[in-house]
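A.,

Following up on our hallway conversation. Structure tokens first:
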């Protein structure tokens, strides 16, 4: 951790917006951590608290997708707050949770949890003033009431049972997917990302879901430490939430290398949508579903049946007009294509542009701030922006978030500068959208403008030079 803190200090010192600041003032005021990630990766919050207590005064865990974890011992210390845990000596702990995502709240229902440190206490008046600045003076009381209902539902023992049922259904689905895989033998089938070893029945213990570092002398029968594909992570620092199921399609291995043939996930999810199954998130070669409270065996059985139907149609190369009639009615160019032909077409484009590597590199590229986010965003109100085409974006300062889907993670925030890696990705998106209408790469922050010939041109709003 000392090495990580040193790197953090170096980054703060190198930030051009902090030029001239003394080293004693270069301390972060708040840590905001997505807990869990979209794919269900959790962090051991007690480890984080112990490491950062006294260095960062405010620890904010964005638990939008994790409000259920506090109601079952399965999740241990892999969520922000729990009973019988020692509070940090100096750091205040905050948790923001979306009650409407994984509990019983209606749309937009959410709450903020605050835990005092041993020495500092929340100034409730100032906190309330800050909160009221960003909320309506005409609250929707049905949302507030749904938060109360959700909290009441989660009172033990009922809440514990509800969470356990979700975990049990998720594991039953994973077992069913593996059973189908075994029946197909050497033929291809979809994989569900997660540990290889599952208990035969029930939910078992959380140990199998905790990501372990590779150790010498590990027996062959033990869990493969590399199932997660993340490399050499700290032992026990991360855990996978079993109710978050990432289904992996053939075509891209864990090393980022493309196979000769592949099935892009966007085609699978379009197929599922026409069969009444709507997924939560679609990536390049994976899509994501959640086993929320109240899910039934019948619902995930429908998904399993649809996936088997997709495989059958793919193997037979069934014509698109037959299997996706509504889609082909809108995009007639695909009518005479077979399903396998379409998969190969999009897979070839992904492989040609090496999109997996390009996506990774653009997020790891050197992202330089040129203005404070608030100052850059304010340029919109001052009408001090201009719309710049993709080919001319290098070196320009964005006034908006730039967020590609997938993965749905902001690439640039207002005040940061477009670099070559990012522009290469934007050029890929432009070419891909031209060749594969209906499967467009959606990028929030890009402005689409159609000319008189119907051609789409892409721009981004930047600070005027």
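Then the amino acids I'd put at each of the 465 positions:
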């Amino acid at each position: 951790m000392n090495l990580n803190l040193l790197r953090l200090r170096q980054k703060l010192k190198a930030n051009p917006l902090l030029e001239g600041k003394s080293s004693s003032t270069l301390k972060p005021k708040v840590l905001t951590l997505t807990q869990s990630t979209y794919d269900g990766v959790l962090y051991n919050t007690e480890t984080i608290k112990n490491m950062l207590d006294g260095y960062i005064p405010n620890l904010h865990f964005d638990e939008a997708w994790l409000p259920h974890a506090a109601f079952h011992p399965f999740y241990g210390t892999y969520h922000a707050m729990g009973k019988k845990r020692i509070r940090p000596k100096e750091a205040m702990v905050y948790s923001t949770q979306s009650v409407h995502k994984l509990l019983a709240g209606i749309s937009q229902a959410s709450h903020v949890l605050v835990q005092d440190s041993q020495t500092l206490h929340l100034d409730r008046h100032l906190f309330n003033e800050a909160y009221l600045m960003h909320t309506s003076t005409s609250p929707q009381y049905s949302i507030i009431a749904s938060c109360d209902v959700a909290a009441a539902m989660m009172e033990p023992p009922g809440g514990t049972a509800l969470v356990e049922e979700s975990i049990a259904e998720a594991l039953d689905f994973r077992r069913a997917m593996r059973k189908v895989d075994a029946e197909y033998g050497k033929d291809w089938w979809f994989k569900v990302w997660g540990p290889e070893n599952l208990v035969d029945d029930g939910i078992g213990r959380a140990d199998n879901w905790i990501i372990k570092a590779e150790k010498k002398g590990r027996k062959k029968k033990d869990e493969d430490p590399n199932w997660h594909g993340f490399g050499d992570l700290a032992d026990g620092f991360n855990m996978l939430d079993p109710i978050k199921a990432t289904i992996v399609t053939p075509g891209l291995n864990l090393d980022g290398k493309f196979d000769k043939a592949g099935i892009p996930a966007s085609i699978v999810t379009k197929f599922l949508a026409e069969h009444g199954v709507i997924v939560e998130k679609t990536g390049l070669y994976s899509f994501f579903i959640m086993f929320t409270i109240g899910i039934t065996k019948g619902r995930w059985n429908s998904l399993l049946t649809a996936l088997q139907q997709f495989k059958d149609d793919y193997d037979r190369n069934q014509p698109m007009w037959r299997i996706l009639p509504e889609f082909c009615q809108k995009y007639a160019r695909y009518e005479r294509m077979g399903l396998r032909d379409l998969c190969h077409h999009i897979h070839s484009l992904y492989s040609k542009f090496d999109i997996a590597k390009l996506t990774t590199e653009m997020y790891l590229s050197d992202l330089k701030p040129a203005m404070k986010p608030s100052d850059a965003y304010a340029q919109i109100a001052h009408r001090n922006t201009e719309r710049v085409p993709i080919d001319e974006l290098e070196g320009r300062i964005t006034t908006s978030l730039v967020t590609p889907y997938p993965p749905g993670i902001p690439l640039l925030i207002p005040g940061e500068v477009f670099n070559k890696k990012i522009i290469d990705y934007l050029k890929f998106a432009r070419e891909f959208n031209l060749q594969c209408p209906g499967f467009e790469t959606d990028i929030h922050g890009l402005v689409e403008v159609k000319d008189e010939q119907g051609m789409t041109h892409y721009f981004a709003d930047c600070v005027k030079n």
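The longest helix spans residues 158-184. Curious whether your intuition agrees with the design.

B.
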